[in-house]
Specification:
Layout: E1 2-3, E2 12-19, E3 24-32, E4 41-46, E5 50-53, E6 58-60, H1 70-75, E7 80-81, H2 82-85, E8 89-92, E9 97-106, E10 113-119, E11 127-131, E12 135-138, E13 142-145, E14 184-188, E15 196-201, E16 214-219, H3 235-245, H4 247-251
Parallel strand pairs: 1-6, 8-13
Antiparallel strand pairs: 2-3, 2-7, 3-4, 5-6, 8-9, 9-10, 10-11, 12-13, 14-15, 15-16
Biased composition (Low complexity): 189-214, 235-255
Biased composition (Polar residues): 215-234
Protein name: PRC-barrel domain-containing protein
């Protein structure tokens, strides 16, 4: 503590007193030598008489602003020493323990608390800075801070973009087109002069060592155009469907064996 009036060093700062309600520094106490049997006297300086707080000393305008030790009890009633405050735990209003207070930052000139730093323990050397706006009640055991503002949440009504392809064909508008990986069925419609062909490819998930088989069912049509359709990818059902729906296929039959042919007897009149 240094007096600017005569440039004398009054003593060394002992305690810094904080008003927990207004959250600002209100007074400093310091010790000065020269007492009986080498003892030191305690004095008090109000923050209103402080000229500046530097990194190495606190300067005051005049030594007449120094109060005696008897005034410390009356002036510091209800105040908190920063040394005691640094030992307290910091907890949120939801009951989450954040750590222990390690440092307090003040605004130059007003001496109000601007922020505090909280340590998470020896295993976590990093500290968390909490602004003064989040400071709540400063009690005898704990320092309460308000919960941080949660991050904005996305609109739940927004539908995610589908990665499936959609077709714009008539009758299937907005329907997703997902071809099957196990089987592929293709149907081609021919004209009056071209044959109607239905190609069926078997599933690739055949037993090991067996080559996938491909069956082709074709039917020639001499009349109107005929479309051969299949309801599934079963080769048997596709063959039956093509044989029953095509009029030409119904006429073409496999010739009977020789032994089953009818015998004709010639009769002379």
């Amino acid at each position: 503590m240094v007096s600017l009036a005569d440039g004398t060093e009054l003593g060394s700062v002992e305690h810094v007193y904080l008003d927990p309600t207004r959250k600002l520094i209100v007074a400093f106490s310091f010790q000065s030598g020269g007492g009986l049997f080498g003892g030191k006297a305690r004095s008090l300086v109000d923050v209103a008489d402080v000229h500046a707080i530097g990194p190495d000393a606190i300067t005051i305008t005049d030594a007449a602003a120094v109060r005696s030790e008897m005034a410390i009890g009356d002036r510091c009633h209800g105040l908190i020493e920063l040394d005691d405050l640094l030992k307290r735990k910091v907890m949120t209003e939801r009951g989450e323990h954040l750590g222990q207070l390690t440092a307090i930052h003040f605004e130059q000139g007003s001496y109000r608390v601007s922020s505090i730093e909280v340590s998470h323990g020896r295993l976590h050397p990093e500290t968390t800075s909490i602004p003064a706006a989040q400071l709540g009640q400063i009690g005898d055991d704990l320092i309460l801070v308000t919960d941080p503002v949660p991050a904005p949440v996305m609109d739940q009504g927004a539908s995610p973009v589908s990665s499936r392809r959609t077709t714009g064909r008539a009758g299937s508008r907005g329907r997703a087109e997902t071809p099957s990986a196990s089987s592929v069925c293709r149907t081609k419609a021919g004209s009056a002069a071209s044959p109607s062909t239905s190609t069926i490819a078997s599933s690739p998930s055949a037993p090991a060592g067996t080559a996938p088989t491909t069956r082709r069912v074709s039917s020639k049509s001499s009349g109107p155009a005929t479309r051969a359709t299949t309801s599934s990818c079963n080769p048997t059902s596709a063959t039956r469907s093509a044989a029953t729906r095509s009029p030409t296929a119904s006429r073409t039959q496999t010739p009977l064996p020789r032994r089953h042919r009818p015998r004709y007897v010639a009769v002379r009149l």
